[in-house]
């Protein structure tokens, strides 16, 4: 298929009686950011290690940029990886580290130096290029790791928990880089993470794994829509207009409206899936509620929908997601 | 801060032809390992400690020589034996840490993710470890020369020490790398290698040279360190021709061939992300 960078067919990895990855199949296209989600032990890291040839599959097949898994060295030339909990040689400078890895990918010394300089600039480490890695913050190390994953200009990049342990600013930087890798370079990014807001922000497609199997795959919207979870909405109106708002909402079939004691200006709306005649788009039921309030000429100060996020789908599908 | 990732260079993309280096993978690994060892690692510290030990040994040998407790040839042989044995020890220690240490520091995975074969990674590390042996031997040359000046044995003794020591260093370094690759942790790897060295080196230091007769001789010949040191003694102290006792070098040679061969043949299988002898 045109534009397919990664094709995985019934990939399985067993450790004795334990199955880490079972019959995993999916394809990823050029420029896509595919989120690999799952609780601890769901098989995300094993999947990445299989697809990057660090581990050998028990059965199944995959190809990267058309190269079959039976040619591991050629696969490694075509992938870039930020491993989970990657270690860095603290005594080396960021520039030395990237030059070394560029040379391991077959670049000559001048070319390796040029690539290292460009990538350090790309990830915002230009000014710290000659500093020892031991002086880098965690966020800087993660960015260095992403730069290392790009030294061979791979068509497919695997990032295993790239925002783990970063402060919000660091997370934002890393996510910006991930987006840039996909958009500007046309690279396919496989992003394994626990941070569901990250996935919602950058991923074009999502795969939810549980016990080594794919539970569901699709766009964030598609995955979220498949969960017939009850939706909640928090509607905030001027306190003197709470009663008219309640009356307006009473006219919408199927809604349950409560007023929390601790916040007299807020109405909590419960919406079972399917209200509004749209089983696949329950968020439209919330639109009906909002429209009813606006038609009653009650100004809406804020309206926040709960239970319509990827995290709800994830928690529903993986049984609370805790292992 | 805003960061922008530049567009992917077409020349290095996918099946297109990248700008390739002619350097083989093992050489790139060896260069970096040597840089890590010598510029910012343990190399200079180990060599300094070695030179302090050798200074003490040379002083003791020198004073014994002055007091006629030790012949000049014996003083040269003693220093040469310490140089070979300790030089090989530090090489073994560095080898023992080479793979299991990287595994524990989390840097092995990124190395395994490069197109360089695991065999080439091991070979690069072997070369870097051997650089430590060569450095320790270079340090020992002036000491041997000082003790043996005036007698014709110094030149041949140094050459012989270099050849025999290199054979022994290759053998034990390859063994160290095998142990490091197969060990479940760095501590296990270092402990096994120290035990190995103790088991091989201690019998050579037994009072009176250990058991006598054919059994004692067999024990010496089976022990690569003991056999190599016995060969040095035979040539340097007893004045034998260098070809006469070559049979003593069979065990160091066999160990080097077996351990080196195992590294070459099994290197791609045993250098793994997780240690231990069970399958991954």
Task: Give structural notes.
The complex is a heterodimer of chains A (about 325) and B (about 280). Chain A is an alpha/beta fold and about 325 residues long. Chain A has eleven helices and 14 strands. Chain A has helices spanning about 45-50, 70-75, 95-105, 110-120, 140-150, 170-185, 195-200, 220-225, 240-250, 285-295, 310-315; strands at about 5-15, 20-30, 35-40, 60-65, 65-70, 80, 155-160, 190, 205-210, 215-220, 230-235, 255-260, 265-270, 300-305. Chain A has a six-stranded mixed sheet, sandwiched between helices. In chain A, helix 6 (about 170-185) links the parallel strand 7 (about 155-160) and strand 8 (about 190). In chain A, helix 3 (about 95-105) crosses helix 4 (about 110-120), helix 5 runs parallel beside helix 6 and helix 9 packs across helix 10. The longest helix of chain A has 18 residues, at about 170-185. In chain A, about 50% of the residues are buried. With about 280 residues, chain B is mainly alpha-helical. Chain B has a domain at about 10-190 and about 260-270. Chain B has helices spanning about 25-40, 45-65, 70-100, 100-105, 110, 120-150, 155-180, 185-200, 215-220, 225-235, 250-270. Chain B is globular, with a radius of gyration of 22 Å. The two termini of chain B are about 40 Å apart. The chains are: A alpha/beta (about 325), B mainly alpha (about 280). Chains A and B meet through helix 2, helix 3, helix 4 and helix 6 of A and helix 1 and helix 5 of B.
Question: What's the count of strands of chain A?
Answer: 14
Gross morphology of chain B is globular
The number of E-state strands of chain B comes to: 0
**What is the mean pLDDT of chain B?**
84
Assign the structural class of chain B, choosing from mainly alpha, mainly beta, alpha/beta, alpha+beta, or little secondary structure.
mainly alpha
What profile does the largest beta sheet of chain A have?
Answer: 6 strands, mixed
Amount of helix of chain A:
25-40%
Quick one: which chains have the greatest interface? A-B, 54 and 41 residues
The ordered string of helix (H) and strand (E) elements of chain A is EEEHEEHEHHHEHEHEEHEHEEHEH
Mean pLDDT of chain A: 85
Number of helices of chain A: 11
């Amino acid at each position: 298929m045109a534009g397919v960078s990664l094709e995985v067919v019934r990939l399985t990895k067993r450790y004795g009686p334990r199955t880490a990855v079972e019959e995993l199949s999916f394809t990823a296209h050029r420029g896509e950011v595919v989120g690999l989600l799952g609780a601890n032990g769901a098989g995300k890291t094993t999947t990445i290690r299989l697809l990057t040839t660090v581990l050998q599959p028990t059965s199944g097949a995959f190809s990267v940029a058309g190269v079959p898994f039976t040619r591991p060295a050629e696969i490694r030339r075509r992938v870039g990886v930020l491993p989970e909990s990657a270690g860095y040689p603290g005594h080396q400078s960021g520039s030395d580290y990237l030059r070394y890895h560029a040379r391991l990918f077959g670049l000559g010394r001048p070319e390796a130096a040029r690539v290292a300089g460009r990538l350090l600039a790309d990830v915002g480490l230009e000014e710290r290029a000659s500093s020892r890695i031991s002086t880098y913050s965690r966020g800087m190390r993660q960015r260095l790791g992403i730069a290392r994953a790009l030294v061979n200009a791979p068509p497919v990049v695997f990032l295993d928990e790239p925002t783990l342990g970063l402060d919000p600013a660091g997370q934002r930087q890393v996510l910006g880089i991930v987006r840039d890798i996909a958009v500007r370079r046309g690279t396919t990014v496989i992003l394994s993470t626990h941070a569901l807001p990250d996935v919602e922000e950058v991923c074009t497609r999502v795969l939810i794994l549980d016990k080594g199997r794919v539970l569901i795959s699709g766009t964030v919207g598609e995955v979220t829509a498949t969960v017939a979870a009850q939706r909640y909405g928090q509607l905030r109106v001027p306190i003197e207009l709470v009663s008219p708002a309640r009356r307006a909402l009473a006219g919408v079939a199927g809604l349950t409206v409560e007023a929390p004691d601790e916040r007299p200006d807020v109405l909590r709306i419960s919406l079972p899936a399917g209200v509004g005649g749209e089983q696949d788009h329950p968020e439209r039921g919330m639109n009906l509620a909002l429209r009813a309030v606006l038609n009653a000429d009650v100004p809406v100060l804020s309206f926040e929908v709960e239970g319509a996020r990827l995290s709800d789908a994830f928690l529903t599908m993986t049984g609370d997601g805790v292992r | 801060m805003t960061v922008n990732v530049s567009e992917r260079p077409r020349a290095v993309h996918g099946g297109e032809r990248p700008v390739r280096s002619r350097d083989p993978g093992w050489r790139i690994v060896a260069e970096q390992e040597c840089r890590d060892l010598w510029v910012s690692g343990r190399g200079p510290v180990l060599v300094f400690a070695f030179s302090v030990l050798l200074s003490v040994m040379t002083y003791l040998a020198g004073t014994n020589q002055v007091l006629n407790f030790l012949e000049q040839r014996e003083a040269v042989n003693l220093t040469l034996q310490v140089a070979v044995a300790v030089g090989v020890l530090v090489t073994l220690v560095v080898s023992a840490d080479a793979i299991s240490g990287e595994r524990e520091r989390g840097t092995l995975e990124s190395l395994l993710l490069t197109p360089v074969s695991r065999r080439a990674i091991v070979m690069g590390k072997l070369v870097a470890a051997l650089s430590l042996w060569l450095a320790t031997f270079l340090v020992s040359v002036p000491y041997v020369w000082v003790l043996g000046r005036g007698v014709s044995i110094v030149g041949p003794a140094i050459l012989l020490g270099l050849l025999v020591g290199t054979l022994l260093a290759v053998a034990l370094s390859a063994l160290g790398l095998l142990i490091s690759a197969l060990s479940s942790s760095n501590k296990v790897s270092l402990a096994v290698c120290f035990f190995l060295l103790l088991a091989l080196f201690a019998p050579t230091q037994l009072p009176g040279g250990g058991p006598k007769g054919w059994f004692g001789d067999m024990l010496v010949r089976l022990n690569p360190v003991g056999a190599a040191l016995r060969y040095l003694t035979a040539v340097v102290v007893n004045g034998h021709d260098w070809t006469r006792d070559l049979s003593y070098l069979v065990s160091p040679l066999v160990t080097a061939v077996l351990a080196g061969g195992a590294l070459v043949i099994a290197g791609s299988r045993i250098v793994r992300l997780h240690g231990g002898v069970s399958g991954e």
